[in-house]
Design a protein that fits this description.
about 30% strand
Amino acid sequence: MSQDVLKADFYDRDPRQVAVDLLGCVLSHETPEGRTAGVIVETEAYRPEDPACHAYKGPTMRNRNIFGPPGIAYVYLSYGTHNLLNVVCEPEGVGSAVLIRALRPSDGEDLMERRRGRAHDLCNGPGRLTQALGVDLNYDGQDLTSGSLTISEGGDAPQGIVQTTRIGITRGTELPWRYLIDGDENVSVPPRATEMRG
C-alpha cells in the first residue's frame, strides 16, 4: 500500500476545505482488469444545512453512508444511470461530503476507453469518471483510505484554483462550492472569465 494514500484525518474537516485540498490528488482503482487513475481537477462540497445535500432532510436507508465516518465513499445513482462518487467528510453523523466531478487521466487510459466506449471525454464529469474507473454502487460505504479504491497525495500543487457555483442541481445553486484547477481541459464545465480565481 502506498504511503501517500490520504488518511481519515484528512477528510475530518469542513468539506469546502477538503474539496480545495483534493485538487491535484490522485484517485486510483485497482481491479482484475487493471489499474486506472486520474488527477482530481474538479470537486464540489456539500454540507448538511445545504438544501442540495443528500443529508439535508436527515438519514435514510439510501443516504446513510453520507453520515458515516470521514474517508468512506458515498456512491449514489443519479438520474437512474450515472454512479456519482463522493468522499464523506467531518465526524461521523454530520452528513457532509465532497463530490469528485472530474479527473485528468493518468494511468490505464486504454482500459478507460474500453469501459467508456470512446477515446475522448473519459473523465470530464462525475458519471463519466466512475464509468471509466469501474466504480459502481457496490463501492458505497467503502473505506477510501485502504483497499482497491483510494485517493493519494498528488505531485505539485495546482497553480491556480477557480471557485464558482455548483452545477447540475436545482437547490443551493447560489453557493460557490465548486472548485476546479484553472485552465485544465478535463473539467466538466469550464468557468466563465468572471469566476473567482485564487
